[in-house]
Amino acid sequence: MKGIAVNNLALRVLWVFDKRTTSGWTDIRQTTDVHTFYWIAGGEGTFVDEKGTNYRVRKGHLVYLKPGFHLHMSTDADNPLRIIMVLTEIGYLPYEQRVWGSVEPLAALPFLILRAFASEQAKVVDKIFQSLIDGWIPGEQGGTVRDQLKLLELIQFLHANPEEELKDRPAQEAYVQMKNYLETHHAANIKLSELAARYGISESYSRKMFLKQLQQTPKQYLQSIRVGHAKQLLVFTDMSMRDIAQACGYGDEFHFSKMFKSLTGTAPSVFRESRSRG
To answer: Which Gene3D superfamilies does the entry link to (predicted)?
Structure first.
């Protein structure tokens, strides 16, 4: 999510409702001061925003409404809408250098108002919403950690599967597989050209995909993962520099120290010492 780290989102699920409309149903968005997701679980209809823009919605569509966004809704007479509605408050909680910031209300998530999904992706989204409906308990027990995790799962999924990538699903799938491999095999000796070939795309195209999704090349992303793991080992263990280098995929301590300093601006030993003092 460009400009926003999903891990830094703080949210509270306020309401989950399975709205089954009937012929002739119309309504307006009543609660406009929160973030709202509408999953179209069935039927067809028309949504109209405050500028008069029409959105035709049908089963498998997801509507995201930021706070302050006004909407008029109506259902088709012969195929009434079924809408799973999720209302939530979302804030941004900074966390840097092991220091918590203050939660600030999030004005909007960087999602389109209306999203359509391929069949397999629609199944994933539908499963998340069905789980929210099945587990929702109104009153004081509403908005539990379970609900928050499910909504975060949805936000992460939307972030990882931008709409434009549906036009190039094989390349998107190859990107996801490469990304997962780098995250789970960061300690291995990885040749990026061979990894791209394994998943059926060229090295140059994999570079393009990573830059588009993460603003990093595959090599840069791999280094960021390795250094991220190294930071944890430096802070929370007494492992030697040599052992940390090996555990994080570096051939030797010198190479590890060089890469760590290039990404963090400080040597591993200095980083460890500064955290132990803190």
So the answer is: Homeodomain-like (1.10.10.60), Jelly Rolls (2.60.120.10)
DSSP line for the chain: -TT--GGGEEEEEEEEEEEE--TT-EEE----SSEEEEEEEE-EEEEEETT--EEEEETTEEEEE-TT--EEEEEBTTB--EEEEEEEEEEE--EETTEE---EE----S--SEEE--HHHHHHHHHHHHHHHHH---GGG-S-HHHHHHHHHHHHHHHHS-GGGGGGHHHHHHHHHHHHHHHH-TTS---HHHHHHHTTS-HHHHHHHHHHHHSS-HHHHHHHHHHHHHHHHHHH----HHHHHHHTT-SSHHHHHHHHHHHHSS-HHHHHHHHHH-
Residue the block writes with tokens 């993962």? 225
75 closest CA partner among 110, 47, 108, 103: 47
- How many CA atoms lie within 13 Å of 75's alpha carbon, on the beta-carbon side? 21
Q: All domains of the chain, ordered by start, with CATH?
A: 6-161 (2.60.120.10), 164-278 (1.10.10.60)
Main-chain dihedrals φ then ψ at residue 36, nearest 5 degrees: -135, 135
Please give the Cα distance from 30 to 71 (Å, whole number): 9
Q: Give the pLDDT means over successive 10-residue stretches in the chain (278 positions).
A: 70 93 94 96 94 90 95 95 96 81 89 83 92 80 80 87 56 79 91 91 90 88 94 93 95 94 94 78
**Alpha-carbon span 89 to 125, nearest angstrom:** 20
